[in-house]
Amino acid sequence: MSTPENTLRAQIEKLVPLSDADWDLLLPHLELRMVKKNTLFAEEGKMGKEVGMILEGCMRHYYTRDGEERSTYFYFENALVGPYLSCITGQPSQISIDALADTQLIVFPYKRLAELFDANKTWERFGRKLAEWALIGVEERMVGLLTLSPEERYNQLLAGNKQKIIERIPQHLIANYLGITPVSLSRIRNRITKK
Amino acid sequence: MSTPENTLRAQIEKLVPLSDADWDLLLPHLELRMVKKNTLFAEEGKMGKEVGMILEGCMRHYYTRDGEERSTYFYFENALVGPYLSCITGQPSQISIDALADTQLIVFPYKRLAELFDANKTWERFGRKLAEWALIGVEERMVGLLTLSPEERYNQLLAGNKQKIIERIPQHLIANYLGITPVSLSRIRNRITKK
DNA sequence: CCGTTTTCTTGTCTTTTGTTATCGTTTTGA
DNA sequence: TCAAAACGATAACAAAAGACAAGAAAACGG
C-alpha cells in the first residue's frame, strides 16, 4: 500500500534492501509534519536533530554570508532532506532549510538513525550508501562550478535531470544556485532564447 | 613501531578504531608502490581498482575538459588517495590521478575493502565514516566556490590548513584548483603583496 | 478585486576576469 | 652541460560579470 511510510521505505531501499524487521526498527519513530511556506525546517546555528523525506512541496537549503542568503540545494517530492552535515559532525548547522511552498514531510530523529547504525549492520550500510550517494552529488556539482561557465551550468540544468528546478524555483534563487547574480541569469536566458 | 603499515592503520583509526583482528583482515593485501613523477596512478576511462595512502611525495586529481586538465585535489603525505568515486559507483573513472613528484604509496585493492564491508561491521562503519569525511570536504569546497570570490578563496588557502598546497604545488595548478586562470592568480598575488 | 510586494528584464557604467603575447627565470631531460 | 620546455610576471585588449537603477510583469494578501 502506498502510505507515506511505504514511500519513505521505497526511497531507503533504493540504497539498501531492508527486511521487515529492519524497517520496524525505524517505523515507530516516524512522524508526519507540515512545514508552512517560508518557515524553517532547520536553522543555522542550531544542532541538526531531524531528517526527513518530502511528501509534497519543496524546500531550499541555504547558507548565509554577509547577511545574504546563498541557496545551495532544492528538494522536491521524495527527496531526503535535513541538516545532514550537522547531524554527522555533531556541530551546529551552518545552513538553514526552509519551505518554498507548504511542505508535507515524514521525519525522524537522526539520533534514532545513529542508534540503528550502532545496532544493525544493514542500517550501518544504509549510512554508508547515503553518504556515498550525497558525495557523488556534491562532487558533480563542484566539478560543474570548477569547469563550466555560468551559461554552460544553466544549460546543464535545462538538459539534465533537474528540470524541476527550472520549473518550480524562482529565478533569483536559481541564479544563486548557479553562483551568479539574478541579473546575469536574466541575460543568459535572453542570450539563449535568441539562438 | 612506525612502519608504513602502521601509519596507514593510524590514518584509518582516525575514523574508526580497529581491533588487531580487524586490521589483520586488510594487512595481507597491502602493497608498497612507487609512482614516478608525471606518471599515472589512476586513469580516466578505466575502472578504479586501487586506493592507497601517500607515504612520501604528492599527487594530483584532475578532470579533462576540452583537452584541458582541470586539477581538483592535491594529496600529500598521509592522505588517502584513489579513484574513489569510480570504486563506489562501479563506473569508469572520470578522473585521472598522477604524481607531481616521485611518490611512495601503500596501496590495496578497493575490492578487498568492499569484501570487508560485507564481512565486518567495523569495516562497514569505516566505509561510512570515510564517505562522510569526504562529503564534508567537498561540501566545504563547493560552498567556497559558490560564496567566495577568487581572491577570498586564495586567502582562505593561505590562512587555512592547506598551506602545503601553496608551498608545494605549481601556481598554474593552484589557479586551476581555485577555478581561475594562472594570469588571474598572478594578479591576485600581486594585489595581495601590495597590501 | 485591488493595491502592495516580489520577481524579472533591461540599460548604463564599472570592475573583474579571460585571452594573447612577450620576456626573464627556472627546471628538465637528453 | 646545454638546449628546450615549463613557469611566472606583466601588459594590452576583449569579454564577461557585477552594481545600480528604473520600469514592466507577476504573485500575493487582505
From TrEMBL, chains A, B:
Top-level taxon in the UniProt lineage: Bacteria
Residues in Cyclic nucleotide-binding domain copies: 33-119
UniProt cross-references to Pfam families, sorted A to Z: cNMP_binding
InterPro entries, per the entry: cNMP-bd_dom, cNMP-bd_dom_sf, RmlC-like_jellyroll
Protein name: Crp/Fnr family transcriptional regulator
UniProt source species: Flavipsychrobacter stenotrophus
